[in-house]
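Filed under: proteins

Residues; backbone shape codes:
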Amino acid sequence: MIRKCEEHGYFRGEECLKCGERGKFMLDDEHEMRLGRFVSGVLRHFPDDVGLDMDAQGWIELDAFCEAMKKRYKWAGKMRLVSLVESDPKQRYEIDNSFIRARYGHSIDVDLDYPLYDSDVLYYGVSQEEVDMLLENGIKPYRQTYIHLSNSSQRARQAASVHTDNPVILEIDAASAAKDGYEFLCANEEIVLSKEILPEYIEIADD
């Protein structure tokens, strides 16, 4: 459930964690899920299917997006869209003035313009079955434009646990890769994006 606290903005749950107020109702769980699927699909995978133009950096005009959204869901106005974006704990989307885009997760070709991430190491969680192949061949995007890396081994384990019960955490020598010209983009506070990780920069993390 998404609600709006007048003092602290949009939040998910029954009450604002900062002040305990219930706030104004915005979306129930069912409508949040339905709208979230539409937003994810359009901003990450098929803007053309709903007649929307996306620029090279993944941006779509907000008003045009809202028009397409309301054709599908008459109850889904701009305020409810903003509530979905701003309350998202995973920071999957962003609104900048009159444009909206997904921060990560694209299967279509985009050239995201995030700041470079400066770190010595990054992490990537994989299944037991994938380890040897990735250590030998490196990591490349699968069904996505970018690889999603984590800035902590704990976050990498959480992300990988969605797909496998006993993930192995790979450690990426980001400092050496960056010196060799590879770019790491800071998508949000936890996720870092890259186009390719060669095997010489990968090893199994020491838990």
Remarks:
- The chain has two domains: 2-102, 121-204.
- Helices lie at 29-44, 62-72, 78-86, 131-137, 153-160, 174-179.
- The two ends are 37 Å apart (CA to CA).
